[in-house]
Amino acid sequence: xxxxxxxxxxxxxxxxxxxxxxxxxxxxxxxxxxxxxxxxxxxxxxxxxxxxxxxxxxxxxxxxxxxxxxxxxxxxxxxxxxx
Length: 83
Description:
Largest sheet: none
Number of strands: 0
Strand content: under 5%
Organism: Algoriphagus chordae
Transmembrane segments: 48-67
Number of helices: 3
Structural class: mainly alpha
Protein name: Adenylosuccinate synthetase
Shape: flat
Helix content: over 70%
Keywords: Membrane, Transmembrane, Transmembrane helix
Radius of gyration: 22 Å
């Protein structure tokens, strides 16, 4: 069955509205009771917390910036070749 035939009667704005209205219902359905929740600040004296909350986000940010710069360079080179 073709997906386009299913969603053809719907406009993009209607689909976006439907998705926006369904997000709270989906997130509430995943709510689990009796799960312990953290109640205080993060203890950075533990190595695992430092790695999880500082090192990994910094590495992700650096990788993102490197790839973003590379993508911009590739697009510029492609544009220059088309001239």
